[in-house]
Amino acid sequence: MNKQTLKNSIIKEMKIIRRLATKIPANKHDFRPAESVRSITELLQYLSTCGTGMLSFWHKKDDRDLKTFFMELNAGAKNVTPANFGTVMESQMELVNKLFDQITEEDLLNKEVTYPWGEKAMLGEAIIETSIKWLTGYKMQLFMKLKQTSDEKLTTPDLWRKTELEAI
Predict the structure, then answer these.
(1) 32: Cβ–Cβ under 8 A, 6 or more apart, which residues?
(2) Does the reported pTM lie above 0.90?
(3) Is residue 142 within 8 Å of 40, Cβ to Cβ?
(4) I want to staple 39 with a disulfide (CB 3.0 to 4.6 A). Which of 1, 20, 32, 46 is the partner?
(5) DSSP secondary structure string for all residues of 99-148
(6) What digits encode the pLDDT tens for the residues 97-138?
(7) Distance CA 85, CA 22 (A)
(8) pLDDT at 167
(9) Would 23 be classed as within a structural domain?
């Protein structure tokens, strides 16, 4: 594992998510398949922070605790709309680059961090277990909601490799 591979994986997921968001029908932003499930807009709000949230927390320079940090992060995410989501994701990709500039290869293997649930892990493993898995899992939710609400003919490549806004 190296930091470039991890960074590339996160950014690729973000690009796929950004592209999928362009496929949301205008009248389906509030769609939720069940009452207890996030709407498409709420899912976009979560996707706008889940790839960088833990990375940002582990690199923060102040003494905010996890709960305070994420309450502030989530409050900012409430301003994310389907209309500004692409721009927000561009900012998130820039943030990933900045955060990874602060990480060394040695940090990935030797820097211990704490997950929100209290377990500890080395930074490289923790990036996979949070940023990468969360982006991938919630990207799949967005894909499935699009399959339910859109006339787009979305297929497997739309979920795993189509990253550009124009057709591939």
Answers:
(1) 38, 39, 40, 42
(2) yes
(3) yes
(4) 32
(5) HHHT--HHHHHH-EEE-TTS-EEEHHHHHIIIIIHHHHHHHHHHHHHHHH
(6) 999 999 999 999 999 999 988 999 999 999 999 999 999 999
(7) 9
(8) 45
(9) yes
